[in-house]
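Reminder to self: tokens first, then the designed residues, so the page reads top to bottom the way the pipeline ran.
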């Protein structure tokens, strides 16, 4: 059950950050994503990096229903993630599938709510994205966005350093 009180969310985010493994790598990303999904009550969550031509995102960790799933690459065109990689947070408390009809995965997975944050380097270059998707409307969008901002600001330097090293190729699928 998601935490909706802003103070409780902040405490949960701080606890999640403290519990992340010391060694950054695949397990670190998986723990970060599954922990964030649990804290905000998301059905799906992921962290990913932009591919070289910036037309797609390659996941570094992806979870659905709190279970880690295989990584994949997806095209950005027509997705809410395309807005995020422009450098701004993005939140749709409800109706995200209607706002992005080209993103068939949103409709196929019955996604109602979406929140995403860009991962930026020290030079303010967008390197990737962290997001969460909800099958029901986001009950407290302001607290959810604040939790994402807090989480992303705390881990962005770690993620930026890891994204600079690159990751293995993964299968491509359309939308998210």
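Designed residues (176 positions):
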């Amino acid at each position: 059950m998601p935490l909706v009180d802003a103070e409780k969310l902040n405490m949960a985010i701080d606890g999640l950050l403290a519990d992340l493994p010391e060694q950054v790598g695949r397990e670190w990303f998986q723990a970060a994503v599954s922990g964030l999904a649990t804290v905000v009550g998301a059905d799906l969550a992921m962290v990913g990096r932009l591919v070289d031509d910036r037309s797609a995102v390659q996941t570094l960790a992806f979870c659905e229903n709190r279970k880690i799933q295989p990584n994949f690459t997806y095209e950005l065109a027509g997705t809410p993630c395309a807005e995020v990689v422009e450098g701004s947070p993005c939140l749709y408390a409800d109706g995200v599938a209607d706002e992005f009809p080209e993103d068939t995965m949103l409709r196929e997975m019955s996604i109602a709510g979406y929140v995403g944050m860009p991962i930026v380097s020290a030079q303010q270059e967008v390197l990737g994205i962290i997001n969460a998707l909800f099958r029901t409307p986001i009950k407290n969008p302001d607290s959810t966005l604040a939790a994402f901002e807090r989480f992303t600001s705390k881990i962005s330097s770690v993620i930026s350093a890891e994204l600079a090293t690159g990751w293995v190729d993964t299968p491509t699928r359309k939308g998210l």
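The CA atoms of residues 10 and 78 lie 32 Å apart.
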